Amino acid sequence: MLTDELRAEVARLKTERDAVVLAHYYVPPEVQELADHVGDSFALARLATTLPNRTLVFAGVRFMAESAKLLSPDKTVRMPDPAADCPMAHMVLRETVAAARERYGDDLAVACYVNSTAEVKSWSDVCVTSSNAVKIVRALGEKNVLFVPDRHLGRFVASQVPEKNVILNEGFCPIHQDISAAEVAALKAAHPDAPVLAHPECGPQALALADFAGSTSQIIDAAVAGEARDYIILTVDGVRGELERRCAGTGKRFHFPATRPVCPDMARISVERLVACLREGTGEVGLPPAEVADAARRALSRMLELGAR
Ligand code: 13P
Ligand code: SF4
Q1: Are residues 169 and 293 in the same domain?
Q2: Are residue 144 and residue 293 in the same domain, yes or no?
Q3: Are 199 and 115 in contact (CB under 8 A)?
Q4: Ligand 1 site-directed mutation target among 40, 91, 178, most atoms within 8 Å of CB
Q5: Sign of the torsion formed by the C-alpha atoms of 248, 253, 255 and 260
Q6: What's the pLDDT tens digit per position in 113-129?
Q7: What residues form DSSP beta bridges with 42?
Q8: Same domain, 299 and 150
Q9: How far apart are CA 120 and CA 190, in angstroms?
Q10: What stretches of 14-90 adopt beta strand conformation (E)?
Q11: CA–CA distance, 9 with 16 (Å, rounded to integer)
């Protein structure tokens, strides 16, 4: 429970530091409450390039803060907990990319989910997020697309863009992959009229039971626009707060898997760490070496350009 004193202190520190707080939907609800902007990965990445403040505080995992720093190198970017990292961000080998480039030559694009390190981005031609991966892969000139690191989002993209030869890598999000089809089936049995709204990082069996697949913002928008009363939500349960806020007064109900999907890295972003970061100026995110930063920035900028069309 946030006190008025704490809210006032956070507001004062933001003004003093000329700082703005951006939070992903997966961080704890009280951190979302203290943020100036809450969104999905794509919305936050795009927004971060437009904000006038000197300091961007990213309440999320490392790849989000790192992307903001790459796109706004002159800004100070901070993380409330620099140890908050996405395990999937590391799940691709350079040899995998090199082997695909060797095999397909110029007719290959490497599409990299933003949930990746700056180094992985630097090996890639374009970044994507879950909200624009289908659109961007469809718009690429190359026939062959190596999709890294997430095999599940890659498989979903392949199903939506059958004209491309999408080559999958072995990475995955442990939290979404663990959402079991049996639990989804149990939820469907309990709520037979409820649409199933899923994140495409879910495994194929769970995703096969979904009526809609999209990013966190797209899931929230679909529930807000929907006419049903009950919704089965297959993503990290940090989205619950925004769902309830946006659907307040409608009587809509949201059902999550019994094994509560929580991202332990996003959960590291506590109110205490956010306040300490603002107060003490900790958790500054630096740039990688110039050649990595330049190549990773190119892939990110291409996403912003193709994603906006
Ligand atoms: P988005 O819906 O923001 O793409 O979230 C996926 C995710 O796992 C962020 O870590
Ligand atoms: Fe990474 Fe999954 Fe956590 Fe997102 S939810 S940050 S993909 S581990």
Answers
A1: yes
A2: yes
A3: no
A4: 40
A5: positive
A6: 999 999 999 999 999 99
A7: none
A8: yes
A9: 42
A10: 19-24, 37-39, 55-59, 76-78
A11: 10
**Residue 79 maps to which CATH number?**
3.40.50.10800
| Each residue's pLDDT tens digit, 178-228 | 999 999 999 999 999 999 999 999 999 999 999 999 999 999 999 999 999
> Do 145 and 211 fall within a single domain?
no
Q: Measured from the CB, is residue 173 less than 6 Å from ligand 2?
A: yes
Average pLDDT by stretches of 10, the chain with 309 residues: 94 98 97 96 90 97 96 96 98 98 98 98 97 95 98 98 98 97 98 98 98 96 98 97 95 96 98 97 97 98 85
Exposed, middle or buried: residue 157 (CB in 10 Å: 0-12, 13-18, 19+)? buried
In a shared domain, residues 254 and 274: no
Residue from 292, 296, 268 nearest 79 by CA: 268
Separation between Cα atoms, residue 89 and residue 284, nearest integer Å: 19
Containing structural domain, residue 235: 179-260
Q: SS3 letters for 228-250? A: CCEEEEECCHHHHHHHHHHCCCC
Q: How many domains does the chain have?
A: 3
Ligand 1 atom closest to the CA of 44, numbered from 1: 3
Q: Could you tell me if the CB of 265 is within 6 A of ligand 2?
A: yes
Atom 1, ligand 2: residue with shortest CA distance = 86
At 39 the three-state DSSP class reads: strand
Q: How many CB atoms lie within 10 A of CB 167?
A: 20
- The CA-based angle 44-154-242, given to 5 degrees, is 35
String of DSSP letters for 164-231: SEEEE-SB--HHHHTS-HHHHHHHHHHSTTPPEEE-TTS-HHHHHT-SEE--HHHHHHHHHH---SEE
Q: Which residue, chain included where needed, has tokens 């990013």? A: 215
